[in-house]
Amino acid sequence: MEFSATSWKDNKQVLLIYTYVCAEPADTIIRYDKKLRLNVQVSCLWIIKEYNSYLGDVDLIDSFLCRYRIRIKSKKWTTRLFYHLLDMTMINAWELYKNVSIMKGKTQQDIMKLADFRTKLADTLYQFQSRSKNKRGRPDNNSRREENPEPSKRLRPGVQVLP
């Protein structure tokens, strides 16, 4: 697999390593020069334009992650990674829901907010029940009693049955 690396200095230095975009073709962009105090044209690689086009989306997802995060503390990095990916999946599902709702002609007031979407998703997953008849493991006592009812035992006088 081929990859390329680029260092770009705009306001701060940005290091990019990429595999899917080549450095060429170069293009020009307009940047403000503090020394000259005016806008100048600067040559720019295509990967930089690609990076800048998605920069706002990454910041938006980070802000949603900070606002509504599953708060479970764990020392295992795999557990933290799982919940982070679950949070990102919920945000992506909400974005898809918003896009589909807009395509269907819903107004912004009719579209659920992210907190409401997460609550509804959690309620739906909580209410979901498996319809499978084949259960693994030991059967519980209630089902065994229904199949093979035991003869009722006589209680000794003066004995109370407590729950």
UniProtKB/TrEMBL annotation:
<dbReference type="InterPro" id="IPR029526">
    <property type="entry name" value="PGBD"/>
</dbReference>
<protein>
    <submittedName>
        <fullName>PiggyBac transposable element-derived protein 4</fullName>
    </submittedName>
</protein>
<feature type="region of interest" description="Disordered">
    <location>
        <begin position="130"/>
        <end position="163"/>
    </location>
</feature>
<feature type="domain" description="PiggyBac transposable element-derived protein">
    <location>
        <begin position="4"/>
        <end position="94"/>
    </location>
</feature>
<dbReference type="Pfam" id="PF13843">
    <property type="entry name" value="DDE_Tnp_1_7"/>
</dbReference>
<feature type="compositionally biased region" description="Basic and acidic residues">
    <location>
        <begin position="137"/>
        <end position="153"/>
    </location>
</feature>
